[in-house]
Design goal:
The structure holds two protein chains of two kinds. By secondary structure, chain A is mostly helical. Helices cover about 75% and strands about 0% of the residues of chain A. Chain A is built from 14 helices and two strands; from the N terminus they run H-H-H-H-E-E-H-H-H-H-H-H-H-H-H-H. In chain A, a hairpin with a 2-residue loop joins strand 1 and strand 2. Helices cover about 30% and strands about 25% of the residues of chain B. A six-stranded mixed β-sheet of chain B has the order 6-7-8-3-9-10, sandwiched between helices. A four-stranded antiparallel β-sheet of chain B has the order 2-1-4-5, with helices on one face. By secondary structure, chain B is an alpha/beta fold. Chain B contains nine helices and twelve strands.
């Protein structure tokens, strides 16, 4: 097990990278902050200190948590559908969540629940609705191929995109602009409230996924195969679909539909550390976090002082990656 | 055959009104080797899926150790019965040993890691199928025969009394098929596994099985030992074709082979 024994090293390396990257990204930028000043007791009260503690660090953390959640959602869908192209984003779940959020914006809802805004709740409902449709399609017709699932996802994406356009059309100019800007993805955060809220959803969600990693290992082989090994496939799938709706819905409502992370990150890590989900889980969680935090840093600095929406950066990377996966095609071991 | 290990009574299956199985009854005693024969579409694989609860039993009953399979928890059932599915196109992106370890699932805790005992079972299974030197290879770099041996090892890793196999030699050349049959023979050796195998290979079934179950259009047309099967000329009726018996001229004492003939005998 030469390769397998390197997995703990990979995970340790990713963990170290995550910590270092979080710190560097929060220090770098304009103005750049020297790491030595973090030890200065007067730093927290200074202008740079407020930039660091109130703006940059929360933003980096939000990016990290959102990236981690998206990567885990992607890993789960890729395993359940046995196809690296099948992720919440490509199957239309993000678009469904966006539709829910757009409806909430349009209706001007202000009520919230458990500290989550109505936009968050509607985004979750949109995500859950889409996942529900996918679940029904996958269960009712058991022989549904992943190719058909992907096409159904494309259809759902179109459907919800049109619905979002309709909501935008019915909105006034300001509301419409807000929606467009929000649809490009955004990781703005002031203070730690949003990162903490996201963490409150991510942690239990991720724990459930980690709990089911042994099940996922076998589901990737095949549903009947997993069932004959003792996996309650129907129940596991139901639970996982619920978790993915929750993760995707919350991330989309906080940050907009940031695409392709759920596809790229788990796939690259599968190439690096293998498809054993007990390891792939930690790889995706850390890798997704690092990746989105870095993308956001690029977005902030690309044409300073303007900020490019982070969703544009991930899509610019993800679109070609998607094509690359298609071209590599079935000859590849990892094209499931 | 006192106290059948596996007992099937009046099993039927008709999804969306289309009859696939009708009133199938048979039993498998401990240590038996039962082969299921029949033309394509006779319901053999569907029958196997019912035995392992991959399809719900709606008509009739399937009992394992006297208890309906539906009453077992999935994990418990997976410690009693393992299943080698038909080779399909999709090959999971795992290495051989890592994949085998995953099949310890019914014995593992959700957040626990496989222990030394689990690894020992995997090594033992690899040795049984003579694939130890392939342990770090990816499944998709193996030949069809090698991969089939790994999938049989995956069933062995489950440490079950019963192994169900769905056409284990489909797509294999005669030499590799022979190797798989020898492997099954070793697994079945006295005190070994109880085996139920769906197959199209009539001659292998005759050589290996203690009893044969013949399905035609979803119905059991024969269930009994190979001698009765041959005496009753079941083969001709099963495939609606006269079969001929061939003996090896160099080895008249060896087992004869049965092949479909051109004209009625």
């Amino acid at each position: 097990m030469k390769r397998a024994s390197r997995r703990p090293l990979w995970i340790a390396g990713l963990l170290a990278t995550a910590l270092v990257v979080t710190l560097i990204l929060a220090l770098a930028g304009t103005p750049a902050i020297s790491p030595a000043r973090l030890l200065d007791p007067a730093f927290a009260g200074s202008a740079d200190g407020r930039i660091f503690w109130q703006l940059r660090l929360p933003r980096v953390l939000l990016g990290f948590l959102a990236g981690a959640a998206l990567a885990i959602g992607g890993m789960v869908f890729q395993a359940v559908f046995r196809n690296p192209l099948a992720t919440p984003f490509t199957l239309g779940v993000s678009t469904g969540a966006s539709f829910g959020a757009a409806v909430a914006v349009k209706l001007g809802l202000v009520a919230g629940l458990l500290g989550f805004s109505s936009v968050s709740l509607f985004a979750f409902l949109g995500a859950a609705l889409t996942v529900g449709i996918i679940y029904l399609l996958a269960t009712v017709k058991q022989e549904f191929s992943t190719e058909v699932m992907l096409l159904a996802g494309v259809a759902l994406s179109f459907l919800f995109s049109s619905a979002i356009l309709l909501v935008q059309y019915l909105s006034d100019f300001t509301g419409s602009y807000q929606m467009v800007r929000w649809l490009m993805g955004d990781l703005n955060a002031v203070g730690f409230q949003r990162p903490l809220q996201l963490a409150a959803v991510l942690l239990p969600g991720a724990l459930v996924v980690r709990w089911l990693c042994l099940d996922l290992n076998l589901i990737l082989v095949g549903d009947d195969f997993a069932r004959s090994r003792g996996v309650d496939v129907r129940r596991v799938r139901l639970v996982l679909f619920g978790v993915v709706s929750l993760l995707t819905g919350v991330v989309v409502s906080f940050c907009g539909p940031i695409g392709f992370i759920g596809m790229m990150v788990p796939h690259i890590l599968r190439l690096l550390i293998g498809a054993e989900h007990r390891w792939l889980f930690w790889g995706s969680l850390l890798g997704g976090g690092i990746f989105l935090a870095c993308c956001d840093w690029v977005a902030r600095g690309l044409i300073f002082p303007a900020e490019v929406p982070v969703g544009i950066i991930t899509a610019l990377l993800g679109g070609p990656f998607f094509l690359w996966l298609l071209i590599r095609g079935r000859s590849s071991r990892y094209f499931m | 055959m006192t106290g059948a290990l596996l007992d099937v009574m009046g099993l039927g299956y008709a999804p969306e009104g289309k009859r696939v199985l009708a009133d199938v009854s048979f039993d498998v005693g401990e240590g038996e080797f039962v082969s299921v024969l029949g033309p394509n579409g006779a319901g053999k694989s569907t029958l196997l899926k019912h035995l392992n609860r991959l399809l719900p039993v709606r008509e009739g009953a399937v009992r394992l150790q006297g208890r309906s399979v539906a009453d077992y928890a999935f994990r418990t059932l997976a410690r009693l019965q393992s299943y080698v599915p038909q080779a399909k196109g999709y090959i999971p992106p795992y290495r051989v040993a890592e994949f085998l370890l995953m099949n310890r699932f019914p014995y593992l805790q959700a957040l626990g890691a496989p222990g030394p005992r689990d690894r020992a079972v995997v090594e033992d299974a690899l040795a049984q199928v003579a694939m130890t030197e392939f342990r770090d290879r990816f499944l998709d770099t193996l030949s069809g025969g090698e991969r089939q041996k790994v999938f049989i090892a995956a069933a062995v890793v489950q440490e079950t009394d019963v192994i169900l196999l769905d056409e284990p030699t489909t797509f294999l050349d005669p030499l590799h098929a022979q190797e798989i049959y020898q492997l099954l023979g070793r697994l079945h050796a006295p005190g070994g596994k109880t085996i139920v195998m769906v197959t199209h290979d009539v001659n292998a079934a005759l050589a290996l099985s203690s009893r044969l179950l013949c399905l035609k259009a979803g119905r059991a047309v024969f269930f009994g030992p190979p001698a009765d099967f041959l005496a009753g000329r079941i083969l001709d009726r099963l495939y609606d074709t006269p079969f001929r018996r061939y003996e090896c001229p160099d080895d008249p004492a060896g087992p004869p082979a049965y092949l479909p003939g051109r004209s009625a005998p």
